């Protein structure tokens, strides 16, 4: 005899006491949610947002209305909100790039400042090199302490 497949509301209800039961919903709807997100944002972002959709659904499963038998529209609603949030985030990044001319994915302001300071520092001879140039004809050899005092004193 074939066992009856529990409906979505039963799975969510059972997952409150047995969290592993929520994986049934993942198996049922993950591919659909992934296709939906990929059609709007592309395959690279789809993996992350599909996982985030199920994570939020799991965290907020107590809010699910059991009067609705199907979870699919609820999951699509969560995914749609995540897609909107992702698009707004990308828009903010593009506006910041246009305003500053710096792409944070390529170069952070701290890295840029560090690079400029390093370049300025390497352009100036360091103090020890300058001091060596002022030594008498011994040409950078280390002098015994007594000879240094005799030459400077």
Task: Report on the architecture of this protein.
The chain is mainly α. The chain folds into 2 domains: 1-101, RNA polymerase sigma factor, region 2, helix turn helix motif (Rna Polymerase Sigma Factor, Chain: A); 103-135. The protein is built from 7 helices and no strands. Helix 2 (23-41) packs across helix 4. The radius of gyration is 32 Å and the shape is elongated. It comes from Actinoallomurus spadix. This is RNA polymerase sigma-70 region 2 domain-containing protein. Keywords: DNA-binding, Sigma factor, Transcription, Transcription regulation.
Helix content: 55-70%
Shape: elongated
The SSE string, one letter per element, is HHHHHHH
N-to-C span: 106 Å
- Per CATH, what is the topology of the largest domain? Rna Polymerase Sigma Factor, Chain: A
Keywords: DNA-binding, Sigma factor, Transcription, Transcription regulation
Pfam family, one: Sigma70_r2
Domain RNA polymerase sigma-70 region: 25-90
Protein name: RNA polymerase sigma-70 region 2 domain-containing protein
């Amino acid at each position: 005899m074939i066992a009856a497949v529990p409906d979505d509301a039963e799975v969510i209800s059972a997952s409150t006491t047995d969290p592993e039961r929520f994986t049934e919903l993942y198996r049922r709807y993950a591919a659909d949610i992934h296709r939906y997100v990929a059609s709007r944002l592309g395959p690279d972002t789809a993996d992350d947002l599909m996982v985030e959709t199920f994570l939020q659904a799991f965290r907020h499963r107590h809010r699910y209305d059991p009067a609705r038998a199907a979870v699919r529209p609820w999951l699509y609603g969560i995914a749609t909100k995540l897609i909107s949030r992702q698009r707004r985030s990308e828009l903010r990044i593009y506006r910041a790039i246009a305003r500053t001319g710096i792409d944070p994915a390529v170069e952070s302001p701290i890295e840029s400042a560090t690079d400029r300071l390093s370049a300025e520092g390497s352009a100036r001879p360091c103090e020890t090199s300058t001091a060596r140039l002022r030594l008498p004809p011994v040409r950078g050899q280390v002098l015994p302490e007594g000879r240094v005092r005799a030459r400077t004193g």
